[in-house]
Design brief:
4-stranded mixed sheet, alpha+beta, 8 helices, about 190 residues, elongated
Length: about 190
């Protein structure tokens, strides 16, 4: 089997795994896999989904990741929720709605981001939280916010208000805000 034939077989198995997981997902009403060869050849896979009212794009993304892991694929799904799947997907999902509309996991890049993400995942009962995932989109509300803020205060001895948490939204922005405060609090007066 040549390299190209091997790649095509691997891509077909990957797409089949994704499609089976999407069909079985109770919150997915319709879906399509992004045509991007870069995604299929690399470690990312683009997926466009139409969700039911009660479904969450982050849950779909993580369920897809679990299905891919279970099938031995190391690909990381990037999911775009849309009102209607286009008749033909001619472009990668980032070109359909812009990179910020796509739900993709990005791992923590620093110890601070890692600590914040781990605390947030624990409080929200999620297996993992990426640095671009939004607190509210993850299911965070005012009650979980208070628990999370308490955990942050305990770990870093830096206060953060509810308003600041909801305004920052993502782990990356919360880490940026805390890093500024940590730097300020360590300066000699």
């Amino acid at each position: 089997m040549g390299r190209e034939t091997e790649m095509m077989a691997s891509n077909s198995a990957l797409v089949a795994t994704i499609e089976n997981a999407l069909v079985a997902h109770p919150g997915v009403l319709d879906s399509a896999v992004s045509p991007s060869r870069e995604d299929l050849d690399g470690d990312r896979v683009g997926v466009v989904v139409v969700l039911s009212e009660m479904a969450c794009v982050l849950d779909v993304r993580e369920d897809l990741r679990a299905a891919l892991d279970g099938a031995g694929h190391g690909a990381e799904p990037a999911v775009l929720a849309v009102a209607r799947v286009p008749a033909r997907l001619l472009a990668p999902i980032e070109e359909l709605a812009g990179p910020s509309a796509v739900s993709r996991y990005e791992p923590p890049a620093s110890e601070l981001e890692e600590g914040i993400a781990a605390r947030l995942a624990s409080i929200l009962g999620r297996p993992r939280v990426g640095v671009l995932d939004d607190f509210v989109d993850l299911g965070g509300d005012s009650l979980t916010a208070v628990a999370f803020l308490h955990a942050i205060q305990e770990a870093y001895d830096v206060p953060l208000s509810l308003v600041e948490l909801f305004a920052a939204g993502t782990v990356r922005e919360i880490a940026r805000l805390l890093a500024e405060r940590l730097t300020t609090s360590q300066r000699p007066r």
